[in-house]
Amino acid sequence: MYEELPDEELFGPGDFSDSGELEVDNIMNEAESHENDAQLTPDPLISSNSEPQKTVFPSIPGLFLYKNLLTQEQQNKLVDAIINEGYFERPESNQAMCFGTLPPFIMRVVDIIENIPSIFPDEIKHRKPLFDQSIINVYKPGDGINSHVDLDRFEDGIVIISLLSACAMKFIPAYLINKELGYSDTSTATNPNEVIPVILRPGDVLAMSGPARYDWAHGIEATKIDIIGDERIVRKVRVSITLRKMKEIQVLNQCADN
Ligand SMILES: O=C(O)CCC(=O)C(=O)O
Ligand SMILES: [Fe+2]
Predict the structure, then answer these.
(1) Which fold is adopted by the domain 14-257?
(2) pLDDT band at 41 (very low <50, low <70, confident <90, very high)
(3) Which segments show compositional bias classed as Acidic residues (predicted)?
(4) In this predicted model, what pLDDT tens digit does every residue of 156-212 receive, in sequence order?
């Protein structure tokens, strides 16, 4: 079901800035080292109709961070499933994707996300399916992803799940990266120097819709250490799962191609 992402053009930015060899052992070691952490993670508020605590970013409407949404056990299960599926057996693989019906281990997280009342505006929240595409990215310490706005072929309403390591994701006004393309600024981002760092930790879920998805670019610096204010994050191997919905026209084109 999953395959490696061969075509950056088609499916979005896969522009890892330092892609040396990835050893799947790294992921496993990280997973094992977290196996006994379960008791450290507070129970998330995931029962239906209750809103888990979220961090909002006043400059970036539509950006919500649900810290620690996944318990340590849920995180371990996800990492185990990713390892067991063998997506990253080849040393050079650092990305795997799936279209259409998502695998059960991802759907379990989608169930949690679907039950967060205000994660997205209603028209996004109630679409069926909520997501039909997932990308799993593996970052070695020092890897990053260039600042980008997710491609227009994806609908609004995107979620990023973080596993195994913390990192800082930086948001910058999108017109800064679109300048060369001649895009005009219709953005909600008014200060061109504005860089908003968002620390993503294992178990966190980041949701982007509206201005957060279209007016701001997100990226992860290629560095082994993030320094955000007083905090120093030494990166370990990080796994992320990005969930999106393809626009209908893309799905039709894909069917026509096959
Ligand atoms: O890996 C991440 O945390 C971000 C991934 C991302 O932005 C993307 O795949 O478009
Ligand atoms: Fe992205």
Answers:
(1) Jelly Rolls (2.60.120)
(2) very low
(3) 1-10
(4) 999 999 999 999 999 999 988 876 554 555 566 566 568 999 999 999 999 999 999
What's the pLDDT score for residue 18? 35
Distance 70 CA to ligand 1 centre (A): 18
Taking the CA of residue 154 as centre, how many other CA atoms within 13 Å lie in the half-sphere pointing to its CB? 28
Q: Which atom of ligand 1 is nearest to the CA of 206?
A: 3
Decide whether any atom of ligand 1 lies within 6 Å of the 135 Cβ. Answer: yes
Beta carbon of 106 within 6 Å of any ligand 1 atom = no
Task: Give the number of the ligand closest to the Cα of residue 11.
Answer: 1
Ligand 1 centroid from CA 242, angstroms: 6
Q: Look at the block and give the residue holding tokens 């219709």.
A: 186
- The Å distance, Cα 120 to ligand 1 centre, comes to 18
Residue nearest to atom 10 of ligand 1 (CA): 150
Nearest ligand to the CA of 143 is 1
Mean pLDDT, rounded, for 231-250: 94
CA distance linking residue 207 with residue 110, whole number of Å? 12
For ligand 1, mutation pick of 10, 17, 135 (most atoms within 8 Å of CB): 135
Pick 231 or 36 by higher pLDDT. Answer: 231
- ipTM of predicted assembly, 2 dp: 0.99
Provide the residue ranges of all domains of the chain, joining segments of one domain with +: 14-257
Residue nearest to atom 9 of ligand 1 (CA): 242
Q: For position 25, what pLDDT does the model report?
A: 60
d(CA 187, CA 220): 21
Nearest partner of 18 among 127, 94, 78, judged by Cα: 94
